[in-house]
Amino acid sequence: MENKLLEQVADIHRRAFTVDAHFDLTYEVANRRERGWEKVIETNYLEQFKGGSIDLIVSAIFINDFFLPEMGLRKALDQISYLLEEKDESPGQFRICHTTAEAYAARTAGETALFLSLEGADPLQNDIRLLRIFYELGVRGLGLVWSRRNYAGDGAFFAKTREGRKGGLTPFGVELIEKAESLGMFVDVSHLNDEGFWDVIDIASKPIIASHSNCRALAGTMRNLSDEQIRAIAQNGGVIGMNSINQFIREDESDVTVSHFIDHVDHIVRIGGVEHVGLGFDLCDSFINFLQIERPLETYDVIKSHAGLGEFTACLITRGYTEDEIIGILGGNFMRVFGEIID
Length: 343
Ligand SMILES: [Zn+2]
What we know:
Blueprint: H1 3-15, E1 18-23, H2 25-34, H3 40-51, E2 54-61, H4 72-89, E3 94-96, H5 100-108, E4 112-119, H6 129-136, E5 139-143, H7 171-183, E6 186-188, H8 194-203, E7 209-210, H9 227-236, E8 239-242, H10 258-271, E9 277-279, H11 285-291, H12 309-318, H13 323-342
Parallel strand pairs: 1-2, 2-4, 3-4, 4-5, 5-6, 7-8, 8-9
The structure holds zinc ion.
Protein backbone atom coordinates (compact mmCIF):
# COMPACT_ATOMS: atom_id res chain seq x y z
CA MET A 1 0.00 0.00 0.00
CA GLU A 2 1.43 3.39 -0.87
CA ASN A 3 2.23 5.78 1.97
CA LYS A 4 -0.49 8.31 1.25
CA LEU A 5 -3.17 5.63 1.31
CA LEU A 6 -1.70 4.15 4.50
CA GLU A 7 -1.86 7.55 6.18
CA GLN A 8 -5.44 8.04 5.04
CA VAL A 9 -6.42 4.63 6.42
CA ALA A 10 -4.71 5.37 9.75
CA ASP A 11 -6.42 8.74 9.96
CA ILE A 12 -9.87 7.24 9.30
CA HIS A 13 -9.26 4.48 11.85
CA ARG A 14 -8.32 7.11 14.43
CA ARG A 15 -11.55 9.02 13.80
CA ALA A 16 -13.87 6.02 13.47
CA PHE A 17 -15.47 4.03 16.27
CA THR A 18 -15.04 0.60 14.71
CA VAL A 19 -17.51 -2.21 15.31
CA ASP A 20 -17.37 -5.87 14.28
CA ALA A 21 -20.98 -6.96 14.77
CA HIS A 22 -20.25 -10.68 14.66
CA PHE A 23 -17.35 -12.65 16.05
CA ASP A 24 -17.60 -16.04 17.81
CA LEU A 25 -15.20 -14.84 20.48
CA THR A 26 -17.14 -16.15 23.48
CA TYR A 27 -17.47 -19.54 21.80
CA GLU A 28 -13.77 -19.73 21.04
CA VAL A 29 -12.79 -18.59 24.53
CA ALA A 30 -14.94 -21.36 26.03
CA ASN A 31 -13.53 -24.02 23.72
CA ARG A 32 -9.95 -23.07 24.48
CA ARG A 33 -10.49 -22.71 28.23
CA GLU A 34 -12.19 -26.12 28.35
CA ARG A 35 -8.87 -27.43 27.04
CA GLY A 36 -6.81 -25.64 29.65
CA TRP A 37 -5.95 -22.34 27.98
CA GLU A 38 -5.95 -19.11 29.97
CA LYS A 39 -5.95 -15.45 28.93
CA VAL A 40 -7.25 -16.46 25.50
CA ILE A 41 -8.36 -12.95 24.55
CA GLU A 42 -5.22 -11.29 25.86
CA THR A 43 -2.88 -13.75 24.14
CA ASN A 44 -4.69 -14.41 20.90
CA TYR A 45 -6.78 -11.37 20.12
CA LEU A 46 -6.08 -8.06 21.79
CA GLU A 47 -3.10 -7.28 19.57
CA GLN A 48 -5.19 -7.99 16.48
CA PHE A 49 -8.07 -5.85 17.74
CA LYS A 50 -5.62 -3.01 18.35
CA GLY A 51 -3.91 -3.58 15.01
CA GLY A 52 -7.23 -3.08 13.24
CA SER A 53 -8.34 -0.27 15.58
CA ILE A 54 -11.37 -2.38 16.54
CA ASP A 55 -13.28 -0.63 19.31
CA LEU A 56 -16.29 -2.92 19.81
CA ILE A 57 -16.79 -6.61 19.14
CA VAL A 58 -20.21 -8.22 19.29
CA SER A 59 -19.21 -11.51 20.82
CA ALA A 60 -21.52 -14.39 19.93
CA ILE A 61 -22.69 -17.21 22.16
CA PHE A 62 -22.98 -20.15 19.78
CA ILE A 63 -23.99 -23.71 20.67
CA ASN A 64 -22.92 -26.71 18.62
CA ASP A 65 -25.64 -29.04 17.31
CA PHE A 66 -24.43 -31.96 19.39
CA PHE A 67 -25.16 -30.15 22.68
CA LEU A 68 -28.79 -29.48 21.76
CA PRO A 69 -31.27 -29.43 23.20
CA GLU A 70 -30.36 -30.54 26.73
CA MET A 71 -26.97 -28.88 27.09
CA GLY A 72 -27.75 -25.62 25.28
CA LEU A 73 -28.49 -23.55 28.38
CA ARG A 74 -25.57 -24.99 30.33
CA LYS A 75 -23.12 -24.35 27.48
CA ALA A 76 -24.37 -20.77 27.03
CA LEU A 77 -23.96 -20.03 30.74
CA ASP A 78 -20.51 -21.65 30.70
CA GLN A 79 -19.47 -19.38 27.84
CA ILE A 80 -20.45 -16.28 29.81
CA SER A 81 -18.70 -17.65 32.87
CA TYR A 82 -15.49 -18.28 30.93
CA LEU A 83 -15.60 -14.74 29.59
CA LEU A 84 -15.89 -13.40 33.14
CA GLU A 85 -12.84 -15.45 34.12
CA GLU A 86 -10.95 -13.94 31.19
CA LYS A 87 -11.92 -10.47 32.39
CA ASP A 88 -10.51 -11.19 35.83
CA GLU A 89 -7.26 -12.49 34.32
CA SER A 90 -6.78 -9.48 32.04
CA PRO A 91 -7.83 -6.41 34.01
CA GLY A 92 -7.92 -3.16 32.07
CA GLN A 93 -7.82 -4.92 28.68
CA PHE A 94 -11.47 -5.33 27.67
CA ARG A 95 -14.95 -4.69 29.05
CA ILE A 96 -18.31 -6.40 28.71
CA CYS A 97 -20.53 -3.41 27.95
CA HIS A 98 -24.28 -2.95 28.28
CA THR A 99 -24.84 0.43 26.60
CA THR A 100 -23.23 2.41 23.81
CA ALA A 101 -22.05 4.92 26.42
CA GLU A 102 -20.14 2.12 28.16
CA ALA A 103 -18.62 1.09 24.82
CA TYR A 104 -17.43 4.64 24.11
CA ALA A 105 -16.05 4.87 27.66
CA ALA A 106 -14.12 1.62 27.14
CA ARG A 107 -12.39 3.07 24.12
CA THR A 108 -11.51 6.26 26.01
CA ALA A 109 -9.93 4.04 28.68
CA GLY A 110 -7.96 2.15 26.02
CA GLU A 111 -9.99 -1.07 26.42
CA THR A 112 -11.77 -3.15 23.80
CA ALA A 113 -15.54 -3.09 24.29
CA LEU A 114 -17.58 -6.30 24.01
CA PHE A 115 -21.32 -6.72 23.58
CA LEU A 116 -22.72 -10.19 24.16
CA SER A 117 -25.18 -11.71 21.73
CA LEU A 118 -26.96 -15.05 21.33
CA GLU A 119 -26.37 -16.66 17.94
CA GLY A 120 -29.65 -18.55 18.02
CA ALA A 121 -32.20 -18.64 20.84
CA ASP A 122 -31.54 -22.37 21.35
CA PRO A 123 -30.31 -22.03 24.97
CA LEU A 124 -33.76 -20.70 25.96
CA GLN A 125 -35.54 -23.70 24.43
CA ASN A 126 -39.17 -22.47 24.80
CA ASP A 127 -38.81 -20.54 28.06
CA ILE A 128 -39.36 -16.83 27.41
CA ARG A 129 -38.32 -15.97 30.98
CA LEU A 130 -34.76 -17.02 30.29
CA LEU A 131 -34.38 -14.11 27.87
CA ARG A 132 -34.58 -11.75 30.85
CA ILE A 133 -31.93 -13.80 32.66
CA PHE A 134 -29.55 -13.50 29.70
CA TYR A 135 -30.28 -9.78 29.57
CA GLU A 136 -29.35 -9.50 33.25
CA LEU A 137 -26.13 -11.37 32.48
CA GLY A 138 -25.25 -8.69 29.95
CA VAL A 139 -26.56 -10.11 26.69
CA ARG A 140 -27.78 -7.32 24.42
CA GLY A 141 -28.30 -9.09 21.08
CA LEU A 142 -30.65 -11.89 20.05
CA GLY A 143 -30.09 -13.87 16.86
CA LEU A 144 -33.35 -15.80 16.59
CA VAL A 145 -31.92 -18.91 14.96
CA TRP A 146 -28.72 -20.43 13.68
CA SER A 147 -28.85 -22.49 10.45
CA ARG A 148 -31.23 -25.09 11.91
CA ARG A 149 -34.72 -25.24 13.42
CA ASN A 150 -35.43 -24.19 17.00
CA TYR A 151 -38.48 -23.14 19.02
CA ALA A 152 -38.40 -19.67 17.41
CA GLY A 153 -38.23 -20.57 13.73
CA ASP A 154 -36.25 -22.11 10.90
CA GLY A 155 -32.70 -21.32 9.91
CA ALA A 156 -31.37 -20.79 6.39
CA PHE A 157 -29.01 -23.55 5.34
CA PHE A 158 -25.62 -22.80 3.82
CA ALA A 159 -26.05 -25.14 0.87
CA LYS A 160 -28.97 -26.94 -0.69
CA THR A 161 -30.35 -29.34 1.90
CA ARG A 162 -33.03 -31.99 1.69
CA GLU A 163 -35.74 -30.59 3.95
CA GLY A 164 -39.48 -30.56 4.48
CA ARG A 165 -41.72 -27.58 3.99
CA LYS A 166 -40.31 -24.51 5.69
CA GLY A 167 -42.12 -22.31 8.16
CA GLY A 168 -41.93 -18.75 9.35
CA LEU A 169 -41.65 -17.70 12.99
CA THR A 170 -43.47 -19.67 15.64
CA PRO A 171 -45.62 -17.90 18.26
CA PHE A 172 -42.57 -18.25 20.54
CA GLY A 173 -40.43 -16.50 17.91
CA VAL A 174 -42.92 -13.63 17.79
CA GLU A 175 -42.93 -13.40 21.59
CA LEU A 176 -39.12 -13.33 21.59
CA ILE A 177 -39.03 -10.29 19.30
CA GLU A 178 -41.54 -8.44 21.47
CA LYS A 179 -39.69 -9.34 24.66
CA ALA A 180 -36.26 -8.47 23.21
CA GLU A 181 -37.54 -5.07 22.10
CA SER A 182 -39.09 -4.36 25.49
CA LEU A 183 -35.90 -5.36 27.33
CA GLY A 184 -33.63 -3.34 25.03
CA MET A 185 -31.96 -6.10 23.01
CA PHE A 186 -31.29 -5.86 19.29
CA VAL A 187 -32.79 -8.54 17.02
CA ASP A 188 -30.48 -10.20 14.50
CA VAL A 189 -31.88 -11.91 11.37
CA SER A 190 -28.65 -13.47 10.07
CA HIS A 191 -29.19 -17.25 9.66
CA LEU A 192 -32.99 -16.86 9.52
CA ASN A 193 -34.84 -18.38 6.56
CA ASP A 194 -36.78 -16.14 4.16
CA GLU A 195 -40.19 -16.89 5.66
CA GLY A 196 -38.97 -15.96 9.14
CA PHE A 197 -37.19 -12.88 7.81
CA TRP A 198 -40.42 -11.42 6.44
CA ASP A 199 -42.21 -12.22 9.69
CA VAL A 200 -39.57 -10.22 11.57
CA ILE A 201 -40.04 -7.30 9.19
CA ASP A 202 -43.80 -7.37 9.91
CA ILE A 203 -43.44 -7.74 13.66
CA ALA A 204 -40.40 -5.65 14.64
CA SER A 205 -41.19 -2.14 15.81
CA LYS A 206 -37.52 -1.15 16.03
CA PRO A 207 -34.60 -1.34 13.56
CA ILE A 208 -33.21 -4.85 13.10
CA ILE A 209 -29.76 -5.99 12.09
CA ALA A 210 -28.35 -8.75 9.92
CA SER A 211 -25.07 -8.95 11.79
CA HIS A 212 -23.19 -11.12 9.27
CA SER A 213 -24.87 -11.55 5.88
CA ASN A 214 -23.95 -10.54 2.33
CA CYS A 215 -25.82 -10.18 -0.97
CA ARG A 216 -27.54 -13.14 -2.58
CA ALA A 217 -27.31 -11.39 -5.96
CA LEU A 218 -23.51 -11.79 -5.82
CA ALA A 219 -23.21 -15.15 -4.03
CA GLY A 220 -26.32 -17.32 -4.24
CA THR A 221 -26.34 -18.91 -0.79
CA MET A 222 -29.54 -18.69 1.27
CA ARG A 223 -27.37 -17.26 4.11
CA ASN A 224 -27.16 -14.07 2.07
CA LEU A 225 -29.89 -11.45 1.65
CA SER A 226 -32.00 -10.92 -1.46
CA ASP A 227 -32.29 -7.41 -2.87
CA GLU A 228 -35.84 -7.16 -1.46
CA GLN A 229 -34.53 -8.08 1.98
CA ILE A 230 -31.73 -5.50 1.75
CA ARG A 231 -34.32 -2.89 0.81
CA ALA A 232 -36.55 -3.93 3.72
CA ILE A 233 -33.72 -3.64 6.26
CA ALA A 234 -32.85 -0.21 4.90
CA GLN A 235 -36.50 0.92 5.17
CA ASN A 236 -36.61 -0.45 8.71
CA GLY A 237 -33.57 1.68 9.61
CA GLY A 238 -31.38 -1.36 10.27
CA VAL A 239 -27.82 -2.30 9.32
CA ILE A 240 -26.22 -5.24 7.51
CA GLY A 241 -22.79 -6.46 8.66
CA MET A 242 -20.53 -7.57 5.80
CA ASN A 243 -19.34 -11.16 6.16
CA SER A 244 -15.73 -11.91 5.20
CA ILE A 245 -16.20 -15.69 4.71
CA ASN A 246 -15.25 -16.64 1.13
CA GLN A 247 -18.33 -18.74 0.33
CA PHE A 248 -20.63 -15.83 1.19
CA ILE A 249 -18.67 -13.49 -1.10
CA ARG A 250 -18.30 -15.52 -4.25
CA GLU A 251 -19.66 -18.85 -5.45
CA ASP A 252 -16.19 -19.73 -6.74
CA GLU A 253 -14.58 -19.83 -3.30
CA SER A 254 -11.12 -20.58 -4.64
CA ASP A 255 -10.25 -17.06 -5.69
CA VAL A 256 -11.86 -14.43 -3.49
CA THR A 257 -10.25 -11.04 -2.95
CA VAL A 258 -10.99 -8.00 -0.77
CA SER A 259 -12.18 -6.31 -3.95
CA HIS A 260 -14.86 -9.01 -4.41
CA PHE A 261 -15.81 -8.39 -0.79
CA ILE A 262 -16.23 -4.66 -1.38
CA ASP A 263 -18.54 -5.49 -4.32
CA HIS A 264 -21.04 -6.53 -1.64
CA VAL A 265 -20.69 -3.16 0.08
CA ASP A 266 -21.28 -1.43 -3.26
CA HIS A 267 -24.36 -3.55 -3.92
CA ILE A 268 -25.98 -2.77 -0.57
CA VAL A 269 -25.14 0.90 -0.94
CA ARG A 270 -26.79 0.96 -4.39
CA ILE A 271 -29.93 -0.76 -3.13
CA GLY A 272 -30.29 0.38 0.46
CA GLY A 273 -27.93 3.30 1.04
CA VAL A 274 -24.54 3.71 2.68
CA GLU A 275 -26.00 4.26 6.16
CA HIS A 276 -27.17 0.62 6.27
CA VAL A 277 -23.77 -1.08 5.90
CA GLY A 278 -21.46 -2.23 8.67
CA LEU A 279 -18.91 -4.94 9.49
CA GLY A 280 -19.77 -8.44 10.67
CA PHE A 281 -16.64 -10.21 9.52
CA ASP A 282 -17.49 -13.56 11.17
CA LEU A 283 -13.78 -14.46 11.27
CA CYS A 284 -13.61 -18.20 11.81
CA ASP A 285 -10.31 -19.68 10.58
CA SER A 286 -8.84 -19.54 14.06
CA PHE A 287 -11.50 -21.48 15.94
CA ILE A 288 -12.39 -23.87 13.13
CA ASN A 289 -8.79 -24.93 12.81
CA PHE A 290 -8.46 -25.10 16.59
CA LEU A 291 -11.46 -27.41 16.88
CA GLN A 292 -10.64 -29.57 13.88
CA ILE A 293 -7.03 -30.34 14.60
CA GLU A 294 -7.28 -33.74 12.97
CA ARG A 295 -8.16 -32.17 9.61
CA PRO A 296 -5.93 -30.20 7.23
CA LEU A 297 -5.90 -26.44 7.75
CA GLU A 298 -8.93 -24.77 6.23
CA THR A 299 -9.29 -21.13 5.33
CA TYR A 300 -12.51 -19.19 4.95
CA ASP A 301 -11.61 -15.64 6.00
CA VAL A 302 -10.94 -13.15 3.22
CA ILE A 303 -9.92 -10.56 5.82
CA LYS A 304 -7.34 -12.66 7.63
CA SER A 305 -7.69 -11.12 11.07
CA HIS A 306 -8.99 -7.94 12.64
CA ALA A 307 -5.51 -6.49 12.14
CA GLY A 308 -6.21 -6.71 8.40
CA LEU A 309 -9.01 -4.15 8.53
CA GLY A 310 -6.74 -1.61 6.83
CA GLU A 311 -6.99 -3.53 3.56
CA PHE A 312 -10.79 -3.27 3.68
CA THR A 313 -10.70 0.45 4.50
CA ALA A 314 -8.12 1.12 1.77
CA CYS A 315 -10.34 -0.59 -0.78
CA LEU A 316 -13.30 1.58 0.28
CA ILE A 317 -11.12 4.67 -0.23
CA THR A 318 -10.04 3.61 -3.71
CA ARG A 319 -13.68 2.89 -4.64
CA GLY A 320 -14.43 6.55 -3.92
CA TYR A 321 -16.25 6.41 -0.58
CA THR A 322 -15.89 9.61 1.43
CA GLU A 323 -14.28 9.59 4.86
CA ASP A 324 -17.63 10.13 6.58
CA GLU A 325 -19.22 7.29 4.63
CA ILE A 326 -16.35 4.98 5.59
CA ILE A 327 -16.62 5.99 9.24
CA GLY A 328 -20.29 5.03 9.08
CA ILE A 329 -19.49 1.66 7.49
CA LEU A 330 -16.72 0.93 10.01
CA GLY A 331 -19.04 1.35 12.96
CA GLY A 332 -21.05 4.58 12.98
CA ASN A 333 -24.05 2.88 11.39
CA PHE A 334 -24.15 0.02 13.89
CA MET A 335 -23.66 2.43 16.80
CA ARG A 336 -26.66 4.45 15.58
CA VAL A 337 -28.88 1.35 15.71
CA PHE A 338 -27.43 0.03 18.98
CA GLY A 339 -27.98 3.46 20.54
CA GLU A 340 -31.63 3.44 19.47
CA ILE A 341 -32.29 -0.01 20.90
CA ILE A 342 -30.17 -0.89 23.90
CA ASP A 343 -29.51 2.44 25.61
ZN1 LIG B 1 -23.09 -17.22 12.01
